[in-house]
Write a structure and sequence with these properties.
This protein is an alpha+beta fold. The protein has one helix and two strands.
Length: 65
């Protein structure tokens, strides 16, 4: 049974299909995580002691509390 070429052919095709399905699921999970992070809105309070000034480069100034 294991030496049959038909068995090895179907085993190979089944393995390739299983790997393709797992890879497709992995990509969907990653994509849904990225979409959910883009849709989330983070509202920071005005009392936060960090100010970000964008010039030619990014400067971050923080006040010590």
């Amino acid at each position: 049974m294991f030496s049959s070429s038909r068995f090895w052919c179907f085993s190979f095709i089944g393995l390739v299909v299983a790997i393709a399905i797992l890879f497709w699921l992995y990509l969907n999970v990653i994509a849904s995580m990225q979409i959910s992070t883009h849709r989330s809105e983070i509202m920071l309070p005005d009392a936060l002691a960090t100010k970000i000034h964008v010039d030619n480069y990014l400067d971050i100034y923080s006040k010590a509390s």
